[in-house]
Write a structure and sequence with these properties.
Elements lengths: L7 E13 L3 E4 L2 E4 L3 E2 L7 H13 L5 H4 L12 H14 L3 E10 L6 H15 L6 E6 L5 H4 L3 E11 L2
Parallel strand pairs: 5-6
Antiparallel strand pairs: 1-4, 1-7, 2-3, 5-7
Helix pairs in contact: 1-3
Amino acid sequence: MSITPFNIRIGQGFDVHAFGDGDHVMLGGVRVPHDRGVLAHSDGDVVIHALCDAMLGALALGDIGKHFPPDDPQWKGADSRAFLRHCNALIRERGWTLGNADVTVICERPKVGPHAGAMREVLAADLGVAVDAVSVKATTTEKLGFTGRGEGIAAQAVCLVFRA
């Protein structure tokens, strides 16, 4: 396959949620123990939300809020993995394939590294790609800003889609 500007696209996404009451956060479809939860309409999975925005952005299909409006009661407490599978179906219906995805979680806590492998496996399974096509990593903000103060968690994602 030759690569031309017409058969590859890149998308990027970003998501953030404030911490609230709870005993875990959902990250990449994995329940990660934490002394806080997140304030969100759905399950608040910043990894999946950022990845969905990247996937939708690659095909100029809007953002996750357009497809799953936060004021729509049917998405209250929703499993974000359903959002991810929906976005992947949109890509495939249009003749595109996800080539790879790279996600960075931004927080001081919880520690993401011990759970990154499980997240990669869940995401790869939902996307129908090999685990080595999905990267999940984390960084801190060196105690600066809202993530550094432990007020919330963020994630950014980028993906490449291609048409053979």
